[in-house]
Design goal:
The chain has one helix at about 135-140; strands spanning about 1-5, 15-30, 50-55, 60-65, 75-85, 90-100, 105, 110, 115, 120, 140-150, 150-165, 180-185, 190-195, 205, 215, 220-225, 225-230, 230. With about 230 residues, it is mainly β. Strands 2, 3, 4, 5, 6, 7, 8, 9, 10, 11 and 12 form an eleven-stranded antiparallel beta sheet that branches. The chain has a three-stranded antiparallel beta sheet with strand order 1-13-14, with no helix packed on it. The chain is globular.
Length: about 230
């Protein structure tokens, strides 16, 4: 367990946040409409060992992804990449996000790879992208995969990576001499324990959804959403 010691000398409010990423993949396509000529279903089956084949200027419209819209925090970046055989002696592939089911973003040429992942392309601020991204925007994100500049290319999977900031919302007022925050490892994704010594007159803890506010007079230990020895507001 990693421990973060905050020594508060003057009276102030202390907030703890974390940055993290989550990935999804496209799992549906425009069957019978905009699709590649060879095994288009293989692009959405979640596997990297089964490849869809496309000819020059063919477009496959990916119409759904595995994001359920769960709010994990404030979104700061959204990116796309693909797994396949792209460029070199075969055709290139570009990804074009489609927002709200109808509004095209920009064309993003993928890096050349042979049976591997391409580099990520950033679509956060694309044409027609949301001004402020929500998790519903990610859930509703579609994408065109288009072949260009050669005879054919292969793509097995198209992935979405979302970078977000989650705020644990730990606030302390007035200041205590020492506060020990024990954080989850290996990734800091939430506050698991809060130990306050010596006692402070009032400590307010505000947690990420669901929100719990507690006024603590003596000592409290915070585990998940369980408060012991606390008065709930």
């Amino acid at each position: 367990m990693r421990k973060l010691l905050l020594f508060l000398i003057f009276s102030f409010i202390c907030s703890v946040g974390f940055a993290d990423t989550v990935t999804y993949y496209f799992n549906a396509y425009d069957e019978g409409g905009e699709e590649w000529f060879s095994y288009p279903e293989r692009m959405v089956d979640g596997a990297t060992g089964t490849v869809a084949g496309g000819m020059e200027e063919e477009i496959q419209l990916l119409t759904g992804n595995t994001c359920r819209g769960t709010d994990l925090g404030t979104i700061t970046k959204v990116e796309l990449r693909a797994y396949g055989t792209i460029g070199g002696f075969v055709a290139g592939v570009l990804l074009r996000p489609v927002f709200s089911g109808s509004s095209d973003g920009d064309d993003h040429n993928l890096s050349e790879v042979s049976d591997d992942w391409t580099d990520y392309v950033d679509i956060t601020s694309d044409t027609n992208a949301p001004g402020t991204w929500s998790w519903t925007n990610v859930q509703n994100l579609d994408c065109d995969a288009e072949v260009y500049g050669g005879m054919s290319a292969g793509v097995a999977k198209v992935e979405i990576r979302v970078t977000y900031t989650g705020d644990t919302g730990v606030t302390v007022t007035p200041a205590a001499d020492t506060i020990t925050l024990t954080l989850q490892t290996p990734t800091v994704s939430g506050v698991r324990n809060v130990t306050v010594t010596p006692d402070a007159d009032t400590i307010t803890l505000t947690l990420q959804v669901p929100t719990i506010e507690a006024t603590i007079k003596t000592y409290t230990k915070l585990q998940g959403a369980t408060l012991q020895g606390a008065t709930l507001n």
